[in-house]
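To whoever picks this up:

The nightly regression suite flagged Porphobilinogen deaminase, chloroplastic as changed. Nothing in the input moved, so I suspect the structure step. Input below, exactly as stored in the fixture:
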Amino acid sequence: MEITLRSALGFPPPTSKTLIHNHHHSRKLMVVKATVAAEQQTQKNKVSLIKIGTRGSPLALAQAYQTREKLMASHPELVEEGAIEIVIIKTTGDKILDQPLADIGGKGLFTKEIDEALLNSDIDIAVHSMKDVPTYLPDGTILPCNLPREDVRDAFISLSVSSLAELPAGSVVGSASLRRQSQILHKYPQLKVENFRGNVQTRLKKLSEGKVQATLLALAGLKRLDMTNNVTAILSIEEMLPAIAQGAIGIACRTYDEKMASYIASLDHEETRLAITCERVFLETLDGSCRTPIAGYAYRDTEGYCVFRGLVASPDGTKVLETSRRGLFALEDMVLMAKDAGNELKSRAGPAFFDMIATLK
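Regenerated output under the current build:
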């Protein structure tokens, strides 16, 4: 059939040499195709060396990708495509957006499902915003690593004024944070604060639609998302004390997974980890629920000492108690400072203060 077709098209009949060449060429193509298919299947079946678990918000993903880049930079075997896989896990906190966190169970709602995936070995490490991590860790997990901390300050965002002080009486500030709410109302009792949840993009959209006149967001998140062009003003630490562990990323793994612990320990930034530990001990000492507005910030000053500032408040801002400490920038000293500061505020507030907050709805 092939010879007849070739003759009809004006080609001379093939010689036996041509037929042999074509046969070899055809076999060679088949071998190449089979090799490519085998390589693709191998790539497909290849098990990732590390599976990173994260929430699916743009900010959470930015933090997971930052972690992946740092792992690749420190460990050459992780550079190969597919060596690190990012696994998105939807948490309860991401699913329920129309209620305040305090009403649906508090901070652990952003980490619970990720912790479960870690314990079930569906992922190898978990990347968290440290301010979402409860002061206790689930049995079987450790959090030995904090990446270098971003800017801890809050950003003020408004389309109509340049500061909180310029907002007219009765203006609504959108914020899901009781810490921000109490500090705003303490300084500006003429303003209103409404629950305002969702990721950064959602909140900015609500602001542009005029649902609120202003909002506050963590500057760290805006920097990681390359969205600082939206910032109207940056609030100083004196104006707005940050959330415990604001601006810090934590990486957790299973307790006895030495390989993963070794991988992530290589990324640990000790100064950040010590500061975060200090702040979290303060929070734990106060035993604050998600209904208790608590703020705290520890940092190394220019002389190398640790400075810690802590705050507890009533949600309506009528009562705000603050304290500060300064001591050696060393774990044991910082833990003692944090406990002492927490116990002081606990004593000054009195049990009735915390009982009152616990009953608020």
